[in-house]
Amino acid sequence: MTFTELAFSTEGRINRVTFWKTAVVFALLAWIGYLLVSAPDNVAAFAGWMILAALLWPITAMLAKRWHDLDHSAWWSLTILIPVIGQLGNLCVLGFLQGTSGPNRFGYPMDADRKRGHTHRGSRPRTDPHPRPPRHLPASYPDLMAMFAKLAKCDGPITAAEIGAVDQFLNEELSLSDAARKEAIRNFRAARDSRMSFEEHVRRFRDHHAEQQHFLARTIDMLVALALADGRLRRREALFLDLVVAVFGVSSQRYYECKYGDSGPRVENTTVPEEKEYARILGLTGRVSREDIRRAYRGLVGQYHPDKVSHLGSRLREVADQEIKKINEAYEYFRKKYDL
Fold first, then answer.
1. Mean pLDDT calculated for residue range 207-225
2. For the whole model, what pTM was predicted?
3. Measured between alpha carbons, how far is 264 from 238 in angstroms, rounded to an integer?
4. What is the spatial distance between Cα 235 and Cα 323, in angstroms, rounded to a whole number?
């Protein structure tokens, strides 16, 4: 981060070390300005006021970026205006609390590019005839781990089979070093409850690998394998996978075989009789009662309610709207047939 970005931009994030270094410099400048303001000479006093006025925006920008590192809005910077309590609170919170691990809604940690060897979009990755596992997690992988975490959690608590699948990806597919693997696990845990939407992580990962279509397709295969770790593809998992395919803009044979192939779990099949298709949409099998139909319908409507998917991003909300239409259509069929 350049000095101009540090002092004048409210975008991005800074860590605790940078916060303290910058705060010390600003404090010294403010002290000099205060001494000049107290001087009897009018010219010196004017210069002091100019220094203090010039520090207002850089201090605001510094506070904003530090709050961003904690995944909080820059508006929290205004709490410093509260006499004593607000100033002490900002000093303690911003100076001592660790920022979020990996990316949050305000971007990557400030040292991600330097530390992880980030390759800018459009540049060619370095080739090595004898590549070694990266010591640090590559810049885009926190988003990948967030995608894993949110997909694993979307259909309920994360299972041991899903954790095992993620661990296998880290060891076999991604070929990470021990240090990078531990960092990936920390990102996975942090992303489970993060407020950044699944769609945002997908788009950021796509932007990092826009010219690596094969790697994007391989990523879809890994996500499909994770969704099938518990033996079945649930409707909500299929919704997440649909979004990934749409945003990546690449095809994956495993994804289409999973959804539409002759073997394996399928979430779409229009060749079955109408009633079986509607029963499948509601998750019903065999002989069912009126109460089974009502219970299944209420559960699915609650799952796809706007309040439940509001944090998932615009594309996922659109897919959820399509799903709820299918659910309502299926329930309407059974309602008329069984006079519910």
1. 87
2. 0.49
3. 13
4. 9
